[in-house]
Amino acid sequence: MSPDDDSRARPRASHTAAPQPPAPEPTSAAPGPGVPEAGSTAAARAPEEPLAEPPAVAPCPHATRPGEPRAETPWGARLFALFGVATLADLGSLAVGFDAGHTVAKTLLMPLLAAYAGVRGAPRLLLAALLFGWGGDILLLSDADPAFLAGMASFAAGHVCYIALFLRHGAPHARGRLLAPAYAVALAATVALLWPDLPAGLRVPVACYSTLLTAMAYGAATRLGPRAAAGGALFMLSDTLIATGVANWPQPPRPDLWIMLTYAAAQFLLVQGALDERPAPAATYREVRSTTP
What we know:
By secondary structure, this protein is mainly alpha-helical. Helix content is about 60%, strand content about 0%. The protein has a domain at about 125-275. It is built from ten helices and no strands.
């Protein structure tokens, strides 16, 4: 059989397609609750999701609000330790009569205390009071009368800074009226007793300085806490010891040792009291809005 015969023997494919079963019509599931139907305006865009809350940020352990004293930091602890070492070195030098050690240690006391107060967020007036005290320390290393007057003026400027700082704490405490007569009597008695024995050129300066010193101590006692009150009282005691030496009154053994001990303690307690009793900072605009209904 030829190829043509074979091809003829096969059945020809029909040009008419066999009927196919009808295709199922597409069906759509019923929209669930909250899902917009197809063709609607809401279906043209995805539903908006609520914004996620920002991640919580852990606060810095040493961060504080403006106006608040900063927490103790490693640098603050180191500076406090250095101030303590310098104080002990000064007292030890005075105890054994090592003048060079006293000169070096005394000039380091107030800068170290000011640095300690600075890292604790001390106000400028407090730092200024300490720096004026540093100037007085250096000037009083000399025994000359001009140096004594200049040193007294430097300490007086420091007392003015302290008084201005204390006035920021509002009205005196309730006990202020009870303490006022005691401080006034102490001032009057000290000046009256020292006056005859003081050199003529130092009487008025000492009286004026004593008034500022007493006002500072009174402000510390009536506007701050007990530590500042103790600091003011020790400052008065320290300077009274100096004044009795100028008046040639009998002195205790090692008077310079007691003068520096009470002075260093006074300045430190005033710093601590001022930092502990700083006025609360005013509320910020955001804080006011957050509390407004």
